[in-house]
Description:
This protein has 13 helices and seven strands. It is α/β, with parallel strands linked by helices. The protein has one domain: Rossmann fold, CATH 3.40.50. The site of S-adenosylmethionine (SAM) has 23 residues, from helix 2 and strand 2.
Amino acid sequence: MEVKQVLHMNGGFGDTSYASNSLLQRKVISMTKPIIEEAITELYISMNAPNNLCMAELGCSSGPNTMVVATEIVKIVRKLCLEIGRQPPEFQIHLNDLTGNDFNSIFRDNLPMFQLELRDEKSRGQFSPCFVSAVPGSFYGRLFAANTVHFIHSSYSLQWISKIPKEVELLNKDNIYMSSASPTQVIDTYYNQFRIDFYTFLRCRSEEIVSGGRMVLTILGRRGHEDACREGCCYIWELLALVLKQMVAEGLIEKEKLRSFNIPNYTPSPREVKEEVEKEGSFGINHLETSEISLVDWSKGFRSADEPDWHNVSRGMRAVSEPLLSEHFGGFVMDQIFEKYSEILRECSNKGPETKFVNVTVSVTRNGK
Length: 369
Ligand SMILES: C[S@@+](CC[C@H](N)C(=O)[O-])C[C@H]1O[C@@H](n2cnc3c(N)ncnc32)[C@H](O)[C@@H]1O
């Protein structure tokens, strides 16, 4: 399967869209804001308040999360300029995702909101132009001209690997991801693909980012190697595999179809991220941190008073995985898959330890060239 031709989040603003079901990812971005603020402040000061600032959001998707970090960065830099008595820079903002991404919604719906949110600052004399452009293509290749980008942000995107290695297809049987029932060779092969992809990503960015430029990356990951299959990301795919197996038993999905389906994700540990950054050698690490989000909190829409609503999680997973699933199994089974999925999530919610998602955030600086 050519991941880059099939993968995208559900577009538009409907019930099953990513725009309406990306609260988990929004929460993750808000948890990493202090790291982003520190990186952009240090960058701007260390570069002696440049007249233009070029940033890129990689794996931007569509919906309310797309422009969150860009908005924040423009505000932080303009505030900084006010404090140090400088004219704010002109901003170039690149939005990147794969070609199937709903870029039209961004420009039609998100961009006017972005402009509105920053309009107030115009009246305070803090106005400077922001030029926003779309850059479709895989971030596992070059996206920008050499030495042109100051700051790169990416959240919940780099766990998507570029392809499913052949060995995974051959050996992972009825599992659809790294599961506790997967042979170790499957887990090693997934890891190897992540290493190749992440190294390539760093190599490409090292050419594009100016010396002293910054990058903040948050990846859906896990705590350590020994936990490979026990954390939230593996568990929720395992529950989806249970649904698909049920549907095979009911004759709604062909067994062979299930056997040839695997999710192109690898959730790295902080150590694995660090090793690749050090091996590639162009970036120095400023921060490497993990944070956690609980599956139950997600189901409650992050309102602690509410009861768990497993439809929230099911819709969130649908928004992310429907294009891959419907390409493989056919669109006609999607409603059934995700109805059964909410049921299974509810049934399993009281079993075992509390499920958590682990976020690995790394903040790096481009070494001198
Ligand atoms: C879960 S979404 C995250 C979107 C957004 N950053 C957020 O936090 O809400 C992951 C995004 O990464 C994109 N993506 C995955 N692999 C990619 C690649 N190789 N190149 C560019 N974008 C990619 C997907 O298409 C998807 O839109």
